[in-house]
Amino acid sequence: MPWHELPARLRAAIEAHAGPVTRSEPGGDGLSSSVRLILHTARGRVFAKGCGPDDGESRAWRLDLSARLSPHVARISPALLWRVAEDGWDVLGFEYLPGRPWADQKPGSPDIPKMLTILRELEGLPAPPTLEVTAADCWGRYADDPALLDGDALVHRDPNPTNFVVSADRAWLVDWGWAVRGPAWLTAAQLVLSMMESGWEPGAAEDALSALRAWCAAPARAVAAFATANVRMWDAAVTASPGWPRDFRAGVARAWAAHRAHLAGIRLLELREAFPGLPGDGGGLA
Question: According to the model, what pLDDT value does residue 142 have?
Fold first, then answer.
């Protein structure tokens, strides 16, 4: 929604915090808010993001979660400068980041190391007590063992290219409205899928994340369980409403799950070669 179409009282309340707005421009794409603007003021630029009275409870809840998590992600995300509630509107004002509002996640991209630096920081951040939504809440219905998705780390559920801002020397991770509590490796697992959507092969995408300690230490069984749950989730979405981009993402999820199953098969094969007395080899265990 353009700046001039916002209610006058809301604009006045925002200018009381940000200063007089001299001009505005669209603040990029997004599905979680109806206001995404870069406001130019006498004090500098600010990124404004918000919801209106017609946006529904889900959008309002996710915007509120972004605001509540902001102090916990200050090292890797823009600072929340102010919050304005007026006439049924809720608008957040964030520090403006001087960078490209998307990351290049294609193979060989120089943005990959910058994203990994941010994810290394994220691995060490615990979920705050106020974050009650868990990974099991999101994927548990599709998982054979939801307990494998338990954890107390702060997880960004959607590290897609448009949720990074990239400058010449670093990156930031934005949009925390979908965050959950879960295992520390789960954001990296989501990034594998996003990188595959940008053209990576599954094994190469996984190898590219080798600098992430939590990812390297992730139990193979838990990662495979998440991969399988992700396939079931996207298959259900396609069944309910087929078409782009759901069909594409379901295909990516299946490709990654097949890769994880192949790895499990190789490991079992190696184990049987090392220990020929395993059950199923004909000899059994004494």
Answer: 97
Q: Give all strands of the β-sheet with 44-51 in edge-to-edge order.
A: 21-26, 35-41, 44-51, 89-95, 80-86
Q: How far is CA 142 from CA 44, 150, 229, in A?
A: 47, 14, 5
Which pLDDT band holds residue 33 (cuts at 50, 70, 90)? Answer: confident
Backbone angles phi and psi of 171, in degrees to 5: -135, 160
* pTM for the whole structure: 0.90
DSSP state of 79: P
Is residue 284 pLDDT above 50, yes or no? no
- Alpha-helical (H) ranges within the chain are 8-18, 56-69, 111-123, 135-139, 186-197, 202-208, 213-216, 220-240, 246-274
Asked if the model's pLDDT at residue 252 lies above 50, the reply is yes
Q: Give CA–CA dist 124/122, Å, rounded.
A: 5
Residue 274 has pLDDT above 70, yes or no: no
At 85, is the secondary structure helix, strand, or coil? Answer: strand
CB-CB contact of 175 with 158 (8 Å): yes
pLDDT at 187: 98
Report the alpha-carbon distance of residue 135 to residue 137 in Å, rounded: 5
Q: Distances in Å between the alpha carbon of 140 and those of 97, 229, 243, 252?
A: 36, 8, 25, 20
As a whole number of angstroms, the distance between CA 58 and CA 174 comes to 18
Helix, strand, coil: what percent of the chain each, to 5?
45, 15, 35
Which residue did the predictor score with more confidence, 31 or 20? 20
CA nearest neighbour of 31 among 46, 49, 14: 49
Residue-range domains of the chain with CATH: 3-95 (3.30.200.20), 111-272 (3.90.1200)
